[in-house]
Each structure stands twice: as C-alpha cells, then as structure tokens.
Design brief:
Elements: H1 24-29, H2 48-61, H3 82-88, H4 91-94, H5 106-123, E1 127-129, H6 135-152, E2 160-164, H7 170-177, E3 181-185, H8 195-201, E4 206-212, H9 224-233, E5 237-241, H10 254-257, E6 261-263, E7 284-286, E8 298-308, E9 311-316, H11 332-345, H12 349-368, H13 372-375, E10 383-384, E11 395-398, H14 400-406, H15 410-419, E12 426-427, E13 436-439, H16 447-460, H17 465-469, H18 482-487
Parallel strand pairs: 2-3, 2-4, 4-5, 5-6
Antiparallel strand pairs: 1-7, 6-7, 8-9, 10-11, 11-13, 12-13
C-alpha cells in the first residue's frame, strides 16, 4: 500500500486496494500543479476492528425503536417488521436503476400499482401518486393540485388556507410555500373544531382547509362532515393530514368525511422506518376532479397475455400534472416495505388501529388514575389536555399543575424519562396545551411495557424536584443549552487542521 493514502504517511489505513497501474510519481505528474495538495490530508487511520468498535460505540449512544419504548406523539414510532427488510433487499427490488426502461421494472411497477390502488381504497380516494418522499412534501403537492384546480376554474384569486390552531406546523408551512395566506381558527374549549369560527372566515377567497383527524390532541372530530360542507359551500377544498391515519384505518376514511385530498405517511402508518429523519414517503390521494393535476408519473396497467400475471405496466403522466416534486418515481424502498406490511396484514390492518387506540386509552387511564400508594405521594397530577373521555391513538398531558406545585416543568419530566430508558414524548406540542407532553404508545407495545412506563412516569412526579430539574443523569450527553446550540450550529467536525 502506498503511504500517500495513509494518515501522516503511516501505512495502517484500515483498508486494502489493488496496486495502482501508475506509480505515485506518475499519478501526481498527471495532476495540474494548481490543484495538488501541499500536504497530506489529515484523514484518521484505523484498522478494521477499530472502525467496527467505533461505529458500534456510536450506535450504542443512539436511541431507537429497537432500543426501547419510543412514545413520540404524532410520529407513530412503531416496530418495523424485519420481513419487510428481507423483501426490500431482494435483488429484484434492491438492484434496479430508476432510469431503467419500464420493461425491466415490471415487478416493481406491479408493486407500485398495487400500492396506488390499496392506498386509494383505504382512504376513499380515486387516484394516488407515490412520488412525494415526505409527509410535508405530500402536503405541498396536494395544495399545488388545489391551486391548479382553482386556476382551471378561473378562481385563481382564492388565496387563503384555513388551519386549526392544533394543526401540525407543516400544514401552514406547506400552504405558505404555495403562496397562500394562512388563516388560523381557534379550537373550542374541548379541543375540537369551532364551526362558528370556521363559518366566520370562509368566503370567496378560501382555497382550502387543512385538518388532521384525529387531531394532535388525539381527539376525533365528530362534526367533520359539517366542516367539510361549510368549506365546500364556499368553493374551497378539504385537505386531510394523514399523520394520524394509524387511528382510523379500516374504521372510516377521509373520503367518507368529505375530504378532497390526503397524504399518507408510509413511515408511520405502514411501518417504513423513520430512519433518523428520513427516508420517508408521503404519497397523496385525491378525488377524481383533482387526478389530472397529480405529480407525474403514475403507474397504469393493461391486460397483456405476455405480461406479468397477464398484465403489463407503464408510466403515465396526468394530463395537467403539476410536474415532479422529486427526482425519481418515489422512495421505492419505502414503498416496497409498506407494500410488504400491507400484504402481510391486509384487512387485519383494522386491528392495528383498534390496538393503537386501545393502548393509548389504557396508558392514559394508568397515568391519570394512579394506584392509591402512588397517588398519596404525587404532589400534583397533570391535567389531561384532551377532555374527551375516549381518545384515539395518542393523548396529551399538561404538566402545568406539577410546575406550579414543584417547579418541575414538562421539559424536566421529559429529560428525566431518559434516565429510565425511554425516549421522551413529544414536548410542548400542540402549543394550545400548556407544558404539554404528547404520548403515542402505538399498537406494537405490550401491556407490560405500558404498565412500566406509567409507573415510572408517576414515580418521577414523586422525586426530589432538583433531581428532576437537572436530568438526565445517566446519558452520554447531559442537558444541553438548546438555544445556544440552535444559534451556533456546528456542521462539520474539525480534524485538527
């Protein structure tokens, strides 16, 4: 091995490669003087065992759904079945190139077509595109379809999108990226949609309303059909944020509620891993009047005796497509994993929703109704941010009573949960709940896990406030100055130049 490729000229580079065809001198001679290094790069050197140990050590510092309970509200951090990984790594899936001709992609395109049809069916939509690679990108694509629909009707002057104050933050952001003004309406005291507030803001300038149902409070909107009627009567469109689709699949659908478009999170509802912020997949489904505007291309099929199982598949562009929203045809790995999940469970996916709702209500009850022994020790119980007697897949807790009594904030409790081996719940969202913790156990956790979490959560409320305020104490990194970190980003590691 040439010393040129080692750190400080040492030969231990941790890898081997064939002898080069050119000598170092000949290789260097072919490089213009102006771009030659004046000194060797300061690359770290390590043997293979040292590299393996380093990355294994890094992995142990991370927390994931495979490490422990991950009750991150609104993110649906469920178990990712390993059979999905086996399927997506098959050569016929894993070794395809996106620029290959359709004749070489018939198996994958068959999966794409089946996913389009399945997603359309379960959401009560007429057409689906798999192209968006994140929920927020799906939101953007759907709002753009609305925009082109209004323009095609000579109503391009509609410039306002309505969102409830409990909406996911990506909703107003996606609409704003399309150039719309955002109109926020308040929730009722019970956390549900205020129909009178909605009636007060709809009009000839309403382009759409964006709603999550169940809401971020974990509450189902029983008057959603009336809300869609109000918006439709004003000429607007209804958008369904599918982040919480895990709670209703098989029980009802956005189509039945009157929505015109929906995005799906394959990395939530359909078990594709989140993967450290990505890769995600956010397909959108639309009613027939919007299908011509969908991002291109879609997969279509026709009968063909010589084709795959009697069918042949091809790409087709909607006639008035808004264009592509990302480079290829969608995140194919995420689509295949979600397809494997759907194929494994089929109609039993309804049980997924049932168990998700059951787990959320059970855990909520365990926290809000502690044992007599613990109740006598807890100085203040959190107020439930969802007054409904039954929630769906997640619930919120306001830690304001605890903070008023002991000075321990919601953030302190979240940090202390790390010491007990849990990922903290979503913190301070939705913002309409003061000192909010949002908890989503998902359908994949056992009763024993939920019981232990509830017990540990309540135990934290009995601990010395100073212990909780200074948590975490057992993690590799203690409490950081998050404001400083946000304002002083360090995006590269210095190697000591």
């Amino acid at each position: 091995m040439s010393d040129l490729f080692a750190f400080d000229g040492a030969p231990e580079a941790g890898y081997a490669q064939p002898s080069p065809l050119l000598s170092d001198e000949e290789a260097i001679a072919g490089i213009p003087e102006s771009i030659r290094r004046k000194s060797l790069p300061r690359w770290p050197r390590a043997s293979e065992p040292e590299l393996v140990r380093h990355y294994t050590w890094l992995s142990r510092r991370n927390f994931g759904i495979d490490t422990g309970f991950y009750p991150l509200g609104s993110c649906t951090m469920k178990h990712n079945p390993r059979v999905n990984e086996k399927i997506v790594q098959m050569a016929g899936m894993n070794d395809l190139h996106p620029l290959a001709p359709a004749s070489h992609l018939q198996g994958l395109m068959a999966i794409f077509y089946e996913m389009q049809e399945m997603l359309a069916h379960c959401a009560g939509m007429d057409s689906v595109t798999l192209q968006p690679v994140a929920g927020a990108q799906g939101e953007f694509a759907a709002i753009r379809c609305f925009q082109e629909y209004h323009r095609s009707n000579g109503e391009g002057s509609r410039d306002k999108v309505i969102v409830p104050d409990s909406a996911h933050g990506t909703n107003p952001a996606s609409a704003a990226m399309c150039g719309y003004q955002i109109i926020e309406i308040p929730s009722n005291e019970d956390g549900r949609l205020d129909l009178e507030a909605l009636r007060a803001v709809v009009g000839d300038d309403t382009a759409a309303m964006m709603v999550t149902n169940p809401s971020t409070l974990g509450i189902f909107e029983p008057e959603i059909a009336e809300a869609t009627e109000i918006v439709h009567n004003a000429g607007g469109q209804m958008y369904y944020d599918g982040a919480n689709f895990n709670a209703i699949l098989g029980k009802t659908s956005p189509g039945l509620m009157g929505f015109d478009a929906v995005h799906y999170n394959l990395h939530k509802t359909f078990s594709q891993p989140h993967g450290g912020g990505g890769p995600g997949s956010g397909p959108i489904g639309v009613k027939s009047h919007l299908a011509q505007f969908l991002p291109k291309p879609l997969v279509v099929r026709e009968e063909d005796e010589q084709g795959l199982d009697g069918w042949s598949y091809s790409w087709e562009d909607p006639v008035n497509s808004i264009g592509k929203v990302q480079q290829w045809h969608g995140n194919s790995g995420a689509v295949v994993r979600a397809w494997a999940f759907y194929r494994r469970y089929g109609r039993d996916l309804e049980k997924m929703s049932e168990h998700a709702v059951l787990n959320a209500n059970y855990l909520r009850h365990r926290i809000l109704n502690p044992s007599k022994e613990l109740a006598s020790k807890i100085p203040a119980m959190p107020i439930d941010g969802a007054p409904a007697r039954v929630v769906k897949h997640e619930f919120t807790l306001s830690m304001s009573p605890v903070k008023d009594a002991t000075g321990v904030s919601g953030k302190d409790v979240a940090k202390r949960l790390l010491d007990y081996g849990y990922m903290a719940p979503t913190l301070y969202f939705p913002m309409i709940v003061p000192e909010c913790l949002m908890v989503e156990p998902t359908e994949t956790e056992s009763k024993e896990v939920l019981d232990k979490f509830a017990e540990d959560f309540l135990t934290i409320l009995t601990e010395d406030p100073e212990l909780v305020k200074t948590a975490p104490h057992t993690t590799d990194v203690g409490r950081v100055d998050e404001v400083w970190a946000a304002r002083n980003l360090v995006l590269r590691h210095s190697l000591g130049e």
